[in-house]
Every structure is written in C-alpha cells, then in structure tokens.
C-alpha cells in the first residue's frame, strides 16, 4: 500500500509562463482567493456567536443538542470547503470522519467530541478569515496593478477622448512600455496566485484531511472488512450452491449402488441424475472461481476482461483501456470488480440505454470511469454494493466517487493508487 504525500495532493501547476497562463486551474484559483475572505468572515461571525452560546447553555439541557447542532454545522461547512477547494485548486481531500454510531445520544456525543477531525474543521474555519484577508488583499493589489499597466494605452486613449483628467503616463511611448511591463506582471501574478493556492491547499490538507496514519489505519480497517465480507460470501456460495449439489450427487450414487443389481434401469437413471448434478456443481465452482478472480483477467489483462463484461451487458457498452503497461494484479482485480458491479447495478436499476467504461493512467494512478445514461439516484450506503466497491478501493488507498443526480447520468469513478 502506498502512502500519498502532500505534493501528490496539491498540484503545483504547469511549468513555463505560457503554461501557467493557459492552465484553467490558475483562473479557477484566482476568484477563490479574492472571495475566500467573505466565507471566512461569515463563518467567524456565526461561530463567534454559536460556540459561546451553546457552551453557556450546556448548564441546562438545551445546550447539549445546541452544541451538537453547532458541531454538525461547522463539519458541514468544512465538507463544503473541501468540495470548493477541489473545484478551485484541484485538491482532493476525502472526508476524514470516524464511522458514525448507529444509535444513542451518548454515543453520538462521544463520537463528535472525540473525533480529531471535528476540532480540525473548527480550526480551519476560524483560520479562514485572517488567511483569506491576506490572500484577498494580495490578490486584489496584484490584479489591479496588472490591469492598470496592461491597459495603459487604452486608459490614455479614453483620457484624451473624455478630457479633463490627468493620467500618470503623459505620452504613448510611456503607455506602451507600461503595457509591456503589465504583461510581465501578469505572468508573475499568475505564478503568485498558484503559489498562494498551493500554500492554502497544503494547509487545508493538513487541517481538513486526516493524518497519514489515520488514513492508513482507516484504509486497513476497510480492507479487512472487505476481505471478511468476501470470505463470508464465498462460504455462503459454497454452502448453498456447490456443496448442496455435491451432497445430492453422493446421495444419488449411494441409491444407485444399492439398486444396481436389483433394479439396473433405476440405478442407471440415478447415475444419469448424479452426472448432471456433477456438471452443475462444476459450473457453479467455475462461476465462483470467476467471481474470485477471472482467468481471462490473469491471462489477457483488463482490456479483454472488461470487453467480456461489456459483451454480456444487456445494452451497448463502449470500452476504452489506455494503459501502456499492465498495472499490478491487485489493481487489475479491483478495477475489474468495480466495473462488473457498476454494470450489474446499471442493468438492475438504471434503465439505461447506453454506457461506457474508460480506464486510463494519470499522476494519481489508474482511473476507472463507468458512465451510463440511466435514471440516476445511485447513492453509497453502508452495506450496499457501492460501499463494498469503496472498501475494495480503500485496500490500496484508493477512492471511489459516485455522481448520480436524479434523472442521470451516473458516473462511478475510482482512483486506484499504484506504482508500476
């Protein structure tokens, strides 16, 4: 299992002046840096009122639910901030919270208060105001100076048309020189914006994400749970399927042996029945082995295995596998079962007419995308099929994300960390 360092989580951006200017991430980060102070101010005002009030009221019974509601509120704000940082900076920060207890007010209070992520969320939201103020002032000053220099000829022309004003540049030569300096400052501003975004994103990873040890512990726990669930499934399939068939075969053969001399025709019929039961048991064992690890995946790789899944789907499924080399066997197996379960769910619930499967590699590892144009509404619930896929991905420090609005389409994306 490979741990993920901060540098893998916070993109620094492309190299070169042109690269940083044309990269969309620069222009998504710029407005966030300008307006984050507003979010920081709003959260500071809300928390400065809600936290002391709820603590003061804990002396009476109403303070306890109010304090819990306040904690849920700032955790919700932190969740929103993680999504905004992902859109603005490209920072992927999974929610690091501990598993929620099933019932009990005392258990929920203990869960909220003892989870370190609760207090890290509070610290980040309170820190957002001073940090956002510095970012907003620096960003606004840079962009105003950049715009004023770059558009110096235009401003001078407008000043001459309107008249009555005084401009710092008295002739066109100075205005055009200023414009050139404005272009240079634009590149510098873009670099500074990316630098501030990187610092902000790194700090957010530290406060809004769990520690590396906590992530690894949670990943191991989910991996153990997934393995235990798989073991129970195999035991259940063996007990209810092949074992029962083989037991029936043994009974039929015993009866045939008893009737072999006295009633040969009936014995022959029992042997024929036992032969059919043996073939059925072999077929069930073959299907069970395919469910553990399909032979075609080992022999021919993901492309052939996923094409086989697509061929058995009830609708047309386009498959694209763009991997120059075969990834490790564990990654191939998890990718295969993610696609298999996603296509099975699509066939059962989505009412889709077309779907696609895309597997490719990027800096995060192997990315698996499964898309369909069905009715949507798929959610990850504890104990469900998608939750099981997320647990499989977690065994190699991977992440499963489901986007399935009502009305569709549905996209299941798995990011599987690996090294060749």
Proportion of residues in β-strands: 5-15%
Q: Biggest sheet, strands in spatial order?
A: 1-2-3-5-4
Task: Name the poorly predicted regions.
Answer: 1-10
The structural domain count equals: 3
Whole-number radius of gyration? 31 Å
- Quote the distance from N terminus to C terminus: 13 Å
* Secondary structure: number of strands: 5
| Principal-axis shape | elongated
What kind of sheet is the major sheet? 5 strands, mixed
Q: Order of helices and strands, N to C?
A: HHHHHHHHHHHHEHEEHEE
Structural overview:
It is a single chain. The protein has 420 residues and is of the alpha+beta class. The protein has three domains: 6-210, no CATH class; 214-292; 299-416, Heat Shock Protein 90 (2-Layer Sandwich), CATH 3.30.565.10. The chain contains 14 helices and five strands. The chain has helices at residues 6-9, 17-22, 24-56, 63-89, 105-114, 116-150, 152-162, 172-208, 212-259, 264-292, 295-300, 302-312, 329-350, 385-394; strands spanning 316-322, 354-362, 365-372, 399-403, 410-416. It has a five-stranded mixed beta sheet. Helix 3 packs antiparallel against helix 4 and helix 9 packs antiparallel against helix 10. It is elongated, with a radius of gyration of 31 Å. The chain starts with 5 loop residues before the first helix and ends with a strand. 28% of the residues are buried. The model is unreliable at 1-10 (pLDDT under 50). Its EC number is 2.7.13.3. Residues 230-295 form the Signal transduction histidine kinase subgroup 3 dimerisation and phosphoacceptor domain. It catalyses: ATP + protein L-histidine = ADP + protein N-phospho-L-histidine. Residues 32-208 form the Putative sensor domain.
């Amino acid at each position: 299992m490979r741990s993920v360092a901060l540098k893998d989580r916070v993109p620094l951006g492309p190299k070169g002046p042109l690269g940083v200017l044309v990269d969309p991430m620069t222009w998504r980060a710029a407005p966030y840096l300008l307006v984050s102070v507003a979010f920081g101010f709003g959260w500071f005002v809300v928390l400065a009122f809600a936290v002391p009030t709820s603590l003061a009221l804990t002396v009476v019974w109403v303070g306890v639910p109010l304090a819990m509601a306040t904690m849920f509120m700032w955790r919700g704000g932190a969740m929103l901030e993680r999504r905004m940082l992902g859109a603005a900076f490209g920072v992927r920060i999974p929610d690091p919270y501990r598993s929620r207890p099933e019932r009990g007010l005392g258990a929920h209070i203990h869960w909220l208060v003892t989870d370190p992520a609760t207090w890290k969320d509070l610290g980040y939201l309170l820190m957002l105001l001073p940090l956002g103020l510095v970012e907003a002032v620096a960003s606004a000053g840079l962009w105003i100076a950049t715009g004023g220099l770059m558009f110096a000829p235009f401003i001078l022309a407008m000043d001459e048309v309107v008249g009555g004003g005084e401009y710092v540049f008295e002739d066109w030569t100075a205005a055009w020189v200023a414009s050139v300096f404005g272009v240079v400052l634009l590149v510098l501003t873009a670099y500074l914006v990316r630098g501030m975004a990187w610092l902000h994103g790194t700090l957010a990873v530290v406060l809004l994400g769990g520690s590396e040890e906590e992530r690894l512990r949670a990943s191991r726990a989910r991996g153990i749970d997934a393995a235990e669930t798989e073991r129970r499934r195999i035991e259940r399939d063996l007990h209810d399927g092949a074992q029962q068939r083989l037991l029936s075969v043994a009974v039929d053969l015993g009866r045939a042996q008893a009737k072999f001399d006295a009633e040969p025709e009936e014995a022959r019929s029992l042997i024929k029945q036992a032969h059919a039961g043996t073939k059925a048991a072999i077929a069930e064992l073959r299907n069970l082995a395919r469910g553990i690890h399909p032979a075609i995946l080992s022999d021919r790789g993901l492309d052939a295995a996923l094409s086989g899944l697509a061929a058995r789907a009830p609708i047309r499924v386009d498959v694209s596998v763009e991997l120059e080399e075969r990834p490790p066997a564990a990654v191939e197996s998890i990718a295969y079962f993610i696609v298999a379960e996603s296509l099975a769910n699509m066939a059962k619930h989505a009412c889709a007419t077309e779907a696609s499967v895309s597997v490719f590699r990027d800096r995060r590892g192997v990315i698996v995308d499964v898309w369909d144009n069905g009715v949507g509404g798929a959610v990850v619930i504890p104990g469900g099929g998608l939750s099981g896929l997320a647990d499989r991905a977690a065994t190699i420090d991977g992440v499963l994300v489901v986007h399935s609005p009502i009305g569709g389409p549905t996209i299941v994306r798995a990011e599987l960390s690996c090294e060749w």
